Amino acid sequence: MKMPVIVQKFGGTSVGSIERIQEVAKQIIKAKNEGNQMVVVVSAMSGETNRLMDLATQVDSVPNARELDVLLTAGEQVSMALLSMAINKLGNKATSLTGLQAGITTDSLHNDATIRSIDTQNILRLLNDDHIVIVAGFQGVNEQGDITTLGRGGSDTSAVALAGALDATECQIYTDVDGIYTCDPRIVSNSQKLEVIDFLSMEEMARCGAKVLHLPCVQYAWKHNVALRVLSSFEGGEGTLVVGDKPCERIQGIAIQRDMTQLSILNSELPILIDLCRMLGIEAQCVIQDAEKAIVIVKRNASAKLELVFEEKIRNSEDVSLLTIVGNQAQGIASNSHGLLSAQSIDVFYHSAGSQSLMLVLSPIHVDAAANILHDAYITAYEPSYYQQKEVHFG
């Protein structure tokens, strides 16, 4: 009988020291001894990618994209080799593979490549020979044989893509938190760990600022029906399972995006600004229109670029934060949310309701308090605490 394949991914803090690598090695061996074939994806040791990036910018403030990929992938290769050594020392067979050796082929977009295909022949041969396979995350090669990197969260994407290609039972993402919470516990102290969350809600959470899983990782897992599990490499527990297409009836969580700027322009200028965003590779996080003006919300560092080339058309710019309530009922609570916050002297500048979320535009100084108020109302309480309706100004 063929043993199930488990793909595990360990982030930088999980392999951040020799002691941590030795603990991870024991954890992997335990999973193998439970009757699984093990493929493990590793990130660079904590801080290593930043160190390599700093070296590159000391040589050239704008490093050559191809050579930067060659440099940055060295971090993951250090991790994979050390982890393989640790497993071998404990009496198990382990082999480390670069992206090329693991058969990961990408497009040619250096620094932000997309996986095109995975040839699993080498990995399967090693698994059949009872090896634990350690793969360097965040990397692959293009059709010309050049090393490429997958961009932010690339090791998560590597793990999910390998899980899909190998028809793995689960893809387990080990990190420094023990699962996915209804809100960041550092902001909302009574946030709740979710046992299960559907892909639709998780995608919306990731898109709107939740940092536990990166958006491309969630999208790939959903598209290829790969069950994801988020666990802690520092403590036990079942973590959170991300699986299924059917959204839960309850509000699932609250996500926050900081360091945003809202730009106010005339409606007639909106198509030009959107085209400009597209040309500069800037994502418009939210577009809100009324009778005369339009509000476009972008990341603060991107707004500086837009203001340089579009300054005469921008009527006003203001730093804001975005708070997004995610869940099947979210679009029906806009007025109530305004009321709950207004009662605590928190103004909502604008809101945008979708089929699976409600995004509120707030002052940065109020967003944490707003998250606590709305979390108490829609998640902590068994029944939503509906505010006595009154006329509310919607911006």
Features:
395 residues; alpha/beta; 8-stranded mixed β-sheet; 6-stranded antiparallel β-sheet; 18 strands; globular; disordered C terminus
Estimate the mean pLDDT confidence: 90
Shape: globular
Run of helices and strands = EHEHHEEEHEEEHEEHHEEEHEEHEHEEH
Give the CA-CA distance, first to last residue: 63 Å
Rg over C-alpha atoms, rounded to the nearest angstrom: 23 Å
Q: What strand order characterises the main sheet?
A: 3-6-2-1-9-11-12-10
Q: Can you put this structure into words, describing what you see?
A:
The chain is α/β, with parallel strands linked by helices and 395 residues long. It is 34% helix and 26% strand. It has helices at residues 18-33, 48-59, 65-89, 121-128, 154-165, 199-207, 215-223, 270-280, 300-310, 334-342, 367-380; strands at 5-10, 37-42, 94-97, 104-106, 115-118, 132-136, 139-141, 147-149, 170-175, 196-197, 228-232, 240-242, 251-266, 286-289, 293-299, 316-327, 348-353, 357-362. It has an eight-stranded mixed β-sheet, with helices on both faces. Strands 14-15-13-16-18-17 form a six-stranded antiparallel β-sheet. Strand 14 (286-289) and strand 15 form a beta hairpin. Helix 1 crosses helix 3 (65-89) and helix 6 packs antiparallel against helix 7 (215-223). The longest helix has 25 residues, at 65-89. The N and C termini lie far apart (63 Å). Mean pLDDT is 90; it is low at 383-395.
